[in-house]
Amino acid sequence: MTAGWRHEPMRSASRRLGPGGAVSAAVIRLVHQSAGDTGVHRTLQMAGERRSVAELQNPAGGSSTGEIVALLRAGGQVADDPDFARHVGQEILRQQVGAETAELLWESRPAGADDEPVRLRRRVQQLTTRLRGAYASAASLLAGGDADAVLARLADGAADAVGGAALLLVVKLADGAERLHQRGFGGDEAAAVARHLLDERVDPSTPLVARGGSALVADVVSPRRRYGRMAAVFDHGTAFLADEQQLLQVYAHYAATALDAVTTLGDARHAEDRARALLDFARALPTAASAQAVAHHLAQTVPVVIGCERSTVLLWDDERQALVRRAQARATAKRRADAAPGPDTPAAAHLAGQGEPAELVVPRRATDAMEQLLHSKDVLVVDRATHDGYLRQLLEDSGTATTVLAPLVAGDELLGVVAANFDTRPGADLRRDHELHERLGSLADQAVTALQNMRLLEQVSHHAWHDSLTALPNRRLLEDRVNQELRRAERSGEGLGVLFIDLDQFKQVNDTLGHAAGDELLHQVARRLCDTVRQQDTVARLGGDEFAVLLPGLSDPDAAEQLARRALEVLDRPYPIGEHQVRVSASIGVALAPRHGTSYDELLSAADAAMYRSKALGRDTFELFDPQRRDSPAPLGPASAGGDPHRRAPAGPVDDAGVLHSAPGEPTEAADRRLAHDLQRAVEHGQLFVVYQPVVDLPTTAVVGVEALVRWRHPHQGILPPAVFIPVAEASDVGVRLDAWVVHQACRQVGAWTALGLPPLRVAVNVSARDLRSPAFVAEVVRGLDDSGLDPDLLELELPEQVVAAGSEALEHHVEQLRSHGVRFAVDGFGAGGATLSRIGRFPLSTLKIDRSVVHDVTAEADPGQPGRLVAAITALARNLGVDCIAAGVETTFQSRMLLAGGCSTAQGFFYSPPLPPADVEQLLLVKAARLSIPTVDGASG
Length: 942
Prior knowledge:
Distance between the termini: 90 Å
Oligomer: single chain
Radius of gyration: 51 Å
Strand content: 15-25%
Number of strands: 27
Structural class: alpha+beta
Largest sheet: 8 strands, mixed, barrel
Shape: elongated
């Protein structure tokens, strides 16, 4: 049976009957036409008839004269027809000889005195009845309603108007749906007849005449379009009257007119729906909170605006590197059945979401169609004849025959795809529908704008609430979440905890390996903390090397301490940074709400105070906040460390670029004394060695000098950077011996390079105020020059800026002694503060060495077209004083370019080279490398 066709049960059909059966059947037929089944039942009751309707319609049946007279009288009364007997006779005659012959015979019979008025009265009555039916049908057009209701009323009216014949009306609406209304046919027979009627290639009367009777067929057609056909049929040779043919055509015209009206109204309502949907779409996009929401709005709008059965939206997923379905929608069953929704129904009501769509992933590189969409930026029509497996999967998954794809493209970036899916429209038809292409492309363009705005807003929001280096929540977002949890805790009675985490001796990593290494270390610390805490916890970076962890629903000190202990364990493991394995520890403070505070500031202040106390206890441990000990110093000595249950044993020794940890339970002072003792032995047993960081000429990047930097290969703790042991050395007598040894090594090494025929290099050695106040140190410097035969002008001793600023008679006297031997002096760390210009002007300087902090400030200045103002001022000062100028700590191309633009022509730093062993410096000089990027051997830098 054809989908969408509606059927009604057959009421009656004429039969060729015998004399008795013919009369009774004609009576029942005429009564049924005028009064229906109820009238037939009343007629049988009034006539005292005990036979059934089927028996009375039996052609072989017979009736007595009394029974016939009773039926005629009762039928006339029920039908309210004074000429009922005449009409029965006419009906019998028409069945026997045909409609036209019966009409002639009836009109030519001998006329009595009253025949003409009776005949005229009968004609007037018939005409009135049929006009009433026609008027009723015309009125039904004005009554409105959906297409099915109007067509049903017209079919009923036509069936009554053509003398009760079997009738069928079949049309095809604008959306391709078929509608069938019939009386007097069986269900299967009606479907077969309807298919023939819609097929314009065959004679539509063929299946109808095959019933043995006569058929009338009228086209349901209007100036706008052809809809279908209307047909009436009598069985067994019964013919139609001429006016019945005209009436059928009238009703067919009514049907076409009604369908035109419905189609016009539907088009208007579709246009209204589209306008409303587009307006709703435009209003919804600016308020969409996510890309998922944009996809949802787009999917719901497409069926209304495009007129498709379903829609699908796929968005690009960076992690999967594929298109992933994010939303889909379909037109409702009501919208598919009716060409136009009701005028008071919002457009959104005609869509039904599919819920959460099943997983559908389309890798972009796996299908050529996606590349075609990206490069052409035009819509693509795909049907099941496509050879693209992924697109065929998209069709099968949506259950549709054809889809129209429009790319969501921003520039050359594919953001996604929107698909309009059709169940019935063929691909060839859709390829020609340029208006549809424009509509879908317009929706795609609006969605792209929304997605771009969404991305921009997300980026701005993310930057406002997250740390730019680690992407963790920043202090602002942490405060917001802490306040939310405090309000929730107040309602629920639960508590919360806060961990304040500070890395121990993080500055040494920056100073030793450079800021890029420090940034990488912070990245790894952030990842480890996120992997360690619970899913509901928040890890935030407060700035520098400070982190915080929010612990919702946690008020038990033991549980908080367990999390703190776990964090210490994971943070203490080695960090792979380049070729190095760096180890740092952390100090952690713990605060709990409400016992330690009921606001963000109170909790963070308490956790911060506890963290500082853990640092005072020797680092690499954690402390629970105790308001009684907020301002009291942490106790020193093994007793306090061993007796504190919160104290965690520090980790073991570090490697090449790590931070030195004391032994378990050992306080800092004891560790320094032990280190000084070990350093004394290091000088005696050859555990020290020197590396050299090149100094380059900025215009040519040629190596013009080196800085000698001491390293300690500790027998148990590996290679230690100077930041670990130099402060200990300077605080003890071993410092002078250590610096003198470095001067001897540097003079000997530069002399050896010169003996090989390499260009002479100036070597710089860091010295302290204690060195220059010692006569022994001065003597060692002179002896080192004499032993190596080095030109004294190639040795430059670097003094901290603070030493120059302080000054002393003994220091100045020894400086003059060395100057008299030709030794040069440089101010190290100039620009960081401490020295006055008057002191600088009186000191016998040869070089100003710009501090690394000044160099790094160049990067932060707003105008990249201007060199750093402080750099320019220092280089101008150096020129006025007649001394050289070197920049330290250069790490980027931008810094190098700005230094050169500011007048500084010499520099050193990791951008050119890290500190190198002597053999690598020698190789560097031999190949005359113009650009230095050679890995360290010892794993540390100056």
